[in-house]
Write a structure and sequence with these properties.
Elements lengths: L9 E3 L13 E3 L1 H12 L3 H26 L4 H20 L7 H12 L1 H4 L1 H4 L8 H16 L6 H16 L1
Parallel strand pairs: 1-2
C-alpha cells in the first residue's frame, strides 16, 4: 500500500516487514519500547535494574516530547534532551555486554542498527513517537473481527475490505 512515491513517515513496531522502509521515512514506536522496558524491569537482578532505568529514561523522553507539543519546551531543547537520553540508554544497555537475555539483545539490536528510525520524531515536525493513533483507528475493526464470525468466503473478505476502507475514509 505504501509505494515508492510515498513522502510521509511510517510509524511502526519492529516487525520485519518494515525493514525495507528507508530510515528517513520510518519511526519506530516508543510505546512498544516502553512495554519491553517494563517487562525487562520485572526480571529482577541487574537486568531488572537495567529495565527500570530504561523505563525511567523513556518517561523522561515522553515528558520532553509532551513539553514540546504543549509549547513549553523548544524543539532545540528536545534535541538536546534526546542526546542525553540516547547516551544513557546506550550506556545502560552495554553494561551487560553480549547478554544471553534475548529481550535485551533485541532492544540493543534496534537501538544500535535503527538509531535514526528511533529518533525520527525529534527531527521531523508532525511525526509522533508512537503509532498509538493508527492502533486506535484499527481497534474497532479488530474487536469486531474477534467477536464475530468475520467472513466465511473470499467474496465476503473482499466485501469487508472494501466496506471497512470506505467507512474509515468517509
Amino acid at each position: 500500500m505504501v509505494g515508492p512515491n510515498f513522502k510521509g513517515v511510517i510509524i511502526s513496531d519492529r516487525y520485519n516487514a518494515y525493514v525495507r522502509i528507508p530510515e528517513e521515512r520510518h519511526q519506530l514506536c516508543w510505546a512498544h519500547f516502553r512495554r519491553e522496558f517494563k517487562a525487562l524491569s520485572q526480571l529482577g537482578g541487574e537486568l531488572g535494574d537495567t529495565g527500570t532505568k530504561l523505563f525511567e529514561l523513556s518517561n523522561q523522553m515522553f515528558s520532553a516530547w509532551h513539553g514540546t507539543q504543549s509549547g513549553q519546551i523548544s524543539r532545540q531543547h528536545l534535541r538536546k534532551t534526546k542526546v542525553a537520553i540516547q547516551t544513557e540508554i546506550i550506556t545502560e544497555m552495554t553494561k551487560h555486554g553480549l547478554t544471553e537475555n534475548k529481550q535485551l539483545r533485541s532492544l540493543m539490536h534496534a537501538f544500535f542498527l535503527s538509531e535514526k528510525s528511533i529518533w525520527r520524531f525529534v527531527d521531523v515536525e508532525g511525526v509522533e513517537p508512537t503509532n498509538n493513533q493508527a492502533e486506535r483507528d484499527l481497534r474497532p475493526v479488530v474487536i469486531w473481527r474477534k467477536t464475530s464470525l468475520f467472513t466465511q468466503s473470499e467474496r465476503g473478505n473482499r466485501y469487508m475490505e472494501r466496506i471497512l476502507t470506505f467507512t474509515s475514509t468517509c
